[in-house]
Structures are given as structure tokens and as C-alpha cells.
Design brief:
mainly alpha, 2 domains
């Protein structure tokens, strides 16, 4: 088991102790878009005591094993992302939209904060849908082509660094929207007069946030660096 210390990046911590992703969610530590920060830096940014947080995380990681995605080949990881996280979002976003529409119609008069919550989630869905299509139809096929080729293929975009940089910016934008959604929902805490659908909706939003954070972590901190390393190796083999 990898021992934790405050000099490890948040991405390294989640890769070696995947169950700590849930702890990071609870503590408000951004391990996806902010995964390159060390634990010490992230704690300082969030106002947490790094020594106390390390003790807490170490206790939660006693039985941890490295994450399965860290042992996958690049093309296997692409397939995993599509089958796991993309499939989840394609299935879940329409369901969550229906739940939001339902609680707005029933509780909107008493809880006007539901309207900006609905608008925020609509923005998230509008961003994630085209984003995943670009990955599934453009970027991921190019990654599979790169893996299968002994040399660097002549991509229309020149280098995969270009579409990856676009994906990273879009990840940042979705991350900001998720932060806003969490604020609007008071940490996904339904009000005392909320019905079962209200509670189910906020629980679904919390689950979607956690899954999207893990999804972005796997792409930003595992897949994309591996792709850029492989592209550099293929380009070197051609020279």
C-alpha cells in the first residue's frame, strides 16, 4: 500500500487509494481539475489543516488497493470511460432533468431557488452532451488509432495536444458549474418540507457530481498525460 504524505498530488492519492475520492468530495478538495495540487497546497487553498487531514485520510485508506484504471492500457481506459462514465451520464442526465422539472412544478412557488438550480443543471447538461460526443466521435477514435500505429498518424489537428487542450478547458467550465450547483443546493441538502422526489433529486445531483469528478480525474490526470507521452514516443520513432 502506498503511504500518504502531504507532498503527494490529489491525483496520486486517488489513484493509489481510490476510496479517498469520496473523502475528497466530503472535504471539498478538488482532485479532478485541481488534481495536480499537492495535498498540502489543496488543504491551504481550502483552509484545512494539512496534518490533521493527512491523519484522517490515512485512517480511511488503511485497506486500500491501487485503482483499476491505473493498470489499464490507454485504449482500455478509453473504452472504460465510454462504458462507465459516458454511459452513466447519457442515462442519468435525462432522469435528473425530469426530477428537477417535477420538483420545480410542485415546490417552485415555495422554493424560488429551484429555478436557478434548474438553469444551472441545464447548462451542465448542455456542456456535457456535446463534450462527450466530441470525445466519442473525434478524440477517442484518434487515440485508438495512435495506440494501434507504430508511428504517429497524420492527424488533421496536427497533434492530439490541440483537442486535449479543448477538452481540458471544457472540463474546467463544467467543474465551475458543479461548484455553483453545490452552492445553489446548499451542498445537496433538501429543505425540511421537501418531498421524496425532492430528496431523490438532490441525491441524484450529488451522485452525478461525484461521478463527474472521478470521470474528469481519469481523463485529466491519467488518460491525457498517457496519450501525450505515447504521441511523443510515436513521433520520436518516426524521426
Amino acid at each position: 500500500m502506498t503511504l500518504l504524505d502531504t507532498s503527494m498530488t490529489l491525483a496520486e492519492v486517488v489513484d493509489s487509494h481510490p476510496q479517498l475520492a469520496r473523502e475528497f468530495e466530503r472535504l471539498g478538495l478538488d482532485y479532478c481539475c485541481g488534481g495536480r495540487r499537492t495535498l498540502a497546497e489543496a488543504c491551504a487553498k481550502t483552509g484545512l489543516d494539512s496534518a490533521a487531514t493527512l491523519v484522517e485520510l490515512t485512517a480511511a485508506a488503511e485497506t486500500s488497493v491501487p485503482a483499476e484504471w491505473t493498470t489499464m492500457t490507454t485504449d482500455q481506459l478509453v473504452d472504460h470511460l465510454v462504458a462507465t462514465h459516458h454511459r452513466y451520464l447519457w442515462d442519468e442526465m435525462p432522469r435528473v432533468t425530469a426530477l428537477i422539472d417535477k420538483i420545480v412544478s410542485v415546490h417552485g412557488a415555495r422554493h424560488p431557488e429551484l429555478v436557478p438550480i434548474a438553469h444551472c443543471f441545464a447548462e451542465i447538461r448542455a456542456d456535457l452532451g456535446p463534450h462527450m460526443l466530441k470525445e466519442e466521435q473525434v478524440l477517442f477514435p484518434m487515440i485508438r488509432e495512435l495506440v494501434a500505429s507504430p508511428e504517429c498518424p497524420p492527424f488533421h489537428c496536427g497533434t492530439l495536444r490541440n483537442p486535449i487542450s479543448v477538452m481540458l478547458r471544457e472540463h474546467d467550465a463544467v467543474g465551475d458549474l458543479l461548484v455553483h450547483l453545490r452552492q445553489l443546493t446548499s451542498g445537496y441538502s433538501p429543505p425540511a418540507d421537501g418531498c421524496a422526489s425532492y430528496a431523490a433529486c438532490f441525491s441524484a445531483l450529488a451522485d452525478l457530481e461525484a461521478d463527474t469528478h472521478l470521470h474528469i480525474h481519469k481523463e485529466n490526470n491519467v488518460l491525457f498525460p498517457a496519450v501525450l507521452r505515447l504521441e511523443a514516443q510515436r513521433a520520436h520513432a518516426r524521426t
